[in-house]
């Protein structure tokens, strides 16, 4: 167990370093932050002074080393826009993002899992076809299209809900639905196929042949097995709590981490972008780690130290 | 003859309009061991899955299945659930995947104990241990908490048998119980089934494609071909003088244990597909003794001798006489 955790943590650290390095290199190769932040018609001396102030005149590998040195001493850098600490800028946006992604996650789970289970249990029925139609639609329509569609209907046509901004809880409804529907559709599809796979297994027939009532066969024998593949996608959804709303936040002008990321990228505000990517990588990795541990709980075959057959 | 424990009458099953069973008539007496043989796809398993209502919803089932005179086809679910695992237990071909991988074997056994004998808690655990011990699992007290993946294939089949015994059944349907196992393990499992049957006076239906397996464990054997029983006889009679050309072909494909070595014969051709079933005898296209009449009409059961019948027009009284053991 200790060994397992240790290797997992090491792999997580390597992943984070790779993500941050990639972001570092791409951002610096894709345009001069000094020029972008100071504006195209700034005097060259001012741009040069900005470069020197932020260390952008150093060779890229020197910048890279000093960047990592700073990270390890807990300094994630400052925004080149307003000089505030990047981590503070990011952290103050997190509650707004979670206000969308957490309710959306609840919708995904509460809608997607039961829909998938019912579709599998009543395979080829009208219910199954309805769920699958909804799922394919929810799965294939990009979130910005769905978001704009909802705005068109509920904000513009019906005038029931605001189209953007963050003034009240009513402003959160459309973005939460936009996020929730897509995820619920994906989860419904996934749960359905996991359930169908399990329902076709011989041990389900064994349980029925033993005289177990069908409801109990489903609850006791099918669901615990179907949960094993399903936690993977649920874990992925947990991992995207921070960064999963970039597009939707932009569509609904919601001041969360996603919008901060979009602005920071277009401004080449290096420290802020890197700080967000670091945070996203860490949530993803944590979610993956939790999923791996959950596998061990759900599936006895994956538990360490299993007693082997003696004959 | 006393009333049979189980009676199948004119049992038909079809999937999406394709026939899988085409009229099965079969009786099983209390404590009797019946072998059901035939090649894969001939309907051996479907017969018993249909009898217990275990086929998927798309299966169309007609005919009659009675257990002690009680009709099971179309019976309410609650009745069927009491019969399944209670009066009639079933074990399957692939023991490893027939046990639920996420539950301890003890839990899977106690589930049946609670359902059919109302035993729960510590008493159920003790009984599960006793059953595991009975079927020859070493160190049952500890192994009751193990998971199926911690057992070998043969041990898993023993666990399946323990689970089947949990409801104290009057009849056990063993569907190819040894096909997935090594030959040595196979012999042990068959010996276990024989011993349990003797001790409990439990009826046994042994489904197998292997005549050898059936010969050692059963008193009577029914040979199935393309969804019908083509011959039924006491084991010894069938081995001494099979009447149906298909049964003759099956026996011809077995190597003799004694006497001169001979070339093993194979039955040419293949089983007709369900959507292209011949109008007459389904075996006629492959039959070496085919006559014109065979292709015109499906032959009915013709008595060959005592407790011996075959669905073949070639079985005539004259032949019947010839078949009598000297």
TrEMBL record, chain A:
<dbReference type="Pfam" id="PF19300">
    <property type="entry name" value="BPD_transp_1_N"/>
</dbReference>
<dbReference type="InterPro" id="IPR045621">
    <property type="entry name" value="BPD_transp_1_N"/>
</dbReference>
<feature type="transmembrane region" description="Helical">
    <location>
        <begin position="172"/>
        <end position="190"/>
    </location>
</feature>
<dbReference type="Pfam" id="PF00528">
    <property type="entry name" value="BPD_transp_1"/>
</dbReference>
<keyword id="KW-0813">Transport</keyword>
<feature type="transmembrane region" description="Helical">
    <location>
        <begin position="226"/>
        <end position="251"/>
    </location>
</feature>
<protein>
    <submittedName>
        <fullName>Peptide/nickel transport system permease protein</fullName>
    </submittedName>
</protein>
<dbReference type="GO" id="GO:0005886">
    <property type="term" value="C:plasma membrane"/>
</dbReference>
<keyword id="KW-1003">Cell membrane</keyword>
<dbReference type="InterPro" id="IPR035906">
    <property type="entry name" value="MetI-like_sf"/>
</dbReference>
<feature type="transmembrane region" description="Helical">
    <location>
        <begin position="271"/>
        <end position="298"/>
    </location>
</feature>
<feature type="transmembrane region" description="Helical">
    <location>
        <begin position="134"/>
        <end position="160"/>
    </location>
</feature>
<feature type="transmembrane region" description="Helical">
    <location>
        <begin position="98"/>
        <end position="122"/>
    </location>
</feature>
<feature type="domain" description="ABC transmembrane type-1">
    <location>
        <begin position="94"/>
        <end position="295"/>
    </location>
</feature>
<keyword id="KW-0812">Transmembrane</keyword>
<comment type="similarity">
    <text>Belongs to the binding-protein-dependent transport system permease family.</text>
</comment>
<keyword id="KW-0472">Membrane</keyword>
<dbReference type="InterPro" id="IPR000515">
    <property type="entry name" value="MetI-like"/>
</dbReference>
<dbReference type="GO" id="GO:0071916">
    <property type="term" value="F:dipeptide transmembrane transporter activity"/>
</dbReference>
<keyword id="KW-1133">Transmembrane helix</keyword>
<feature type="transmembrane region" description="Helical">
    <location>
        <begin position="12"/>
        <end position="31"/>
    </location>
</feature>
UniProtKB/TrEMBL annotation, chain B:
<dbReference type="InterPro" id="IPR013563">
    <property type="entry name" value="Oligopep_ABC_C"/>
</dbReference>
<dbReference type="InterPro" id="IPR003439">
    <property type="entry name" value="ABC_transporter-like_ATP-bd"/>
</dbReference>
<dbReference type="InterPro" id="IPR027417">
    <property type="entry name" value="P-loop_NTPase"/>
</dbReference>
<keyword id="KW-0813">Transport</keyword>
<keyword id="KW-0067">ATP-binding</keyword>
<dbReference type="Pfam" id="PF08352">
    <property type="entry name" value="oligo_HPY"/>
</dbReference>
<comment type="similarity">
    <text>Belongs to the ABC transporter superfamily.</text>
</comment>
<dbReference type="GO" id="GO:0015833">
    <property type="term" value="P:peptide transport"/>
</dbReference>
<protein>
    <submittedName>
        <fullName>Peptide/nickel transport system ATP-binding protein</fullName>
    </submittedName>
</protein>
<dbReference type="GO" id="GO:0005886">
    <property type="term" value="C:plasma membrane"/>
</dbReference>
<keyword id="KW-0547">Nucleotide-binding</keyword>
<dbReference type="GO" id="GO:0016887">
    <property type="term" value="F:ATP hydrolysis activity"/>
</dbReference>
<feature type="domain" description="ABC transporter">
    <location>
        <begin position="6"/>
        <end position="251"/>
    </location>
</feature>
<dbReference type="GO" id="GO:0055085">
    <property type="term" value="P:transmembrane transport"/>
</dbReference>
<keyword id="KW-0472">Membrane</keyword>
<dbReference type="Pfam" id="PF00005">
    <property type="entry name" value="ABC_tran"/>
</dbReference>
<dbReference type="InterPro" id="IPR003593">
    <property type="entry name" value="AAA+_ATPase"/>
</dbReference>
<dbReference type="GO" id="GO:0005524">
    <property type="term" value="F:ATP binding"/>
</dbReference>
<keyword id="KW-1003">Cell membrane</keyword>
<dbReference type="InterPro" id="IPR050388">
    <property type="entry name" value="ABC_Ni/Peptide_Import"/>
</dbReference>
């Amino acid at each position: 167990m200790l060994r397992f955790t240790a290797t997992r943590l090491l792999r997580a650290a390597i992943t984070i370093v790779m993500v941050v390095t990639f972001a570092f290199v791409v951002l610096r190769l894709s345009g001069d932050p000094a020029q972008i932040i100071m504006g195209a018609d700034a005097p060259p001396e001012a741009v040069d002074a900005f470069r020197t102030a932020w260390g952008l005149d150093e060779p890229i590998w020197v910048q890279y080393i000093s960047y990592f040195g700073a990270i390890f001493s807990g300094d994630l850098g400052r925004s080149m826009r307003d000089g505030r600490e990047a981590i503070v800028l990011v952290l103050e946006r997190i509650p707004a993002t979670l206000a969308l992604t957490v309710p959306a996650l609840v919708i995904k789970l509460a809608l997607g899992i039961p829909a998938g289970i019912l579709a599998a249990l009543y395979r080829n029925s009208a219910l199954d076809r309805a769920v699958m139609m909804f799922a394919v639609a929810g799965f294939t329509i990009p979130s910005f299209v769905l978001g704009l569609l909802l705005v068109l209907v509920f904000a513009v046509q019906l005038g029931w809900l605001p189209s953007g901004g963050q003034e009240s809880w009513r402003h959160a409804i459309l973005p939460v639905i936009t996020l929730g529907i897509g995820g619920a559709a994906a989860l419904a599809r996934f749960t359905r196929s996991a359930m169908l796979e399990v329902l076709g297994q011989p041990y389900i027939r064994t349980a029925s042949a033993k005289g177990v009532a069908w409801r109990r066969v489903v609850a006791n024998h099918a669901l615990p097995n179907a949960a094993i593949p399903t936690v993977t996608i649920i874990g992925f959804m947990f991992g995207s709590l921070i960064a999963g709303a970039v597009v939707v936040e932009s569509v609904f002008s919601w001041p969360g981490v996603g919008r901060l990321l979009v602005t920071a990228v277009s401004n080449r505000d290096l420290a802020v972008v890197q700080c967000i990517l670091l945070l996203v990588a860490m949530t993803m990795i944590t979610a993956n780690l939790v999923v791996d541990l959950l596998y061990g709980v759900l599936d006895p075959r994956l538990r360490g130290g299993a007693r082997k057959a003696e004959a | 003859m006393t009333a049979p424990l189980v009676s199948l009458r004119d049992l038909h099953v079809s999937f999406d309009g394709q026939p899988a069973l085409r009229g099965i008539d079969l009786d099983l007496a209390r404590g009797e061991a019946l072998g059901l043989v035939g090649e894969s796809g001939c309907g051996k398993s479907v017969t018993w899955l249909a009898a217990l209502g275990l086929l998927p919803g798309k299966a169309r089932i007609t005919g009659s299945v009675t257990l002690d005179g009680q009709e099971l086809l179309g019976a309410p679910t609650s009745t069927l659930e009491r019969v399944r695992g209670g009066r009639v237990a079933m074990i399957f071909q692939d023991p490893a995947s027939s046990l639920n991988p996420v539950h301890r074997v003890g839990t899977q056994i106690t589930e049946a104990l609670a359902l059919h004998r109302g035993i729960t808690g510590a008493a159920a655990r003790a009984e599960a241990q006793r059953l595991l011990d009975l079927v020859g699992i070493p160190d049952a007290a500890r192994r009751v908490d193990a998971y199926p993946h911690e057992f070998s294939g043969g041990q898993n089949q023993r666990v399946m048998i323990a689970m089947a015994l949990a409801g104290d059944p009057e009849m056990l349907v063993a569907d190819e119980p040894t096909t997935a196992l090594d030959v040595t393990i196979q012999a042990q499992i068959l010996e276990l089934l024989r011993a349990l049957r003797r001790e409990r006076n439990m009826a046994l239906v042994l489904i197998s494609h292997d005549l050898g397996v059936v010969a050692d464990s059963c008193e009577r054997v029914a040979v199935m071909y393309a969804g019908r029983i083509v011959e039924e006889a006491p084991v010894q009679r069938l081995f001494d003088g099979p009447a149906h050309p298909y049964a003759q072909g099956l026996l011809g494909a077995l190597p003799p244990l004694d006497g001169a070595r001979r070339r093993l014969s194979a039955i040419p051709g293949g089983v007709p597909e369900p959507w292209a079933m011949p109008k007459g005898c389904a075996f006629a296209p492959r039959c070496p003794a085919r006559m014109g009449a065979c292709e015109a009409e499906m032959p009915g059961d013709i008595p060959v001798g005592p407790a011996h019948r075959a669905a073949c027009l070639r079985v005539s009284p004259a032949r019947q006489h010839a078949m009598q053991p000297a």
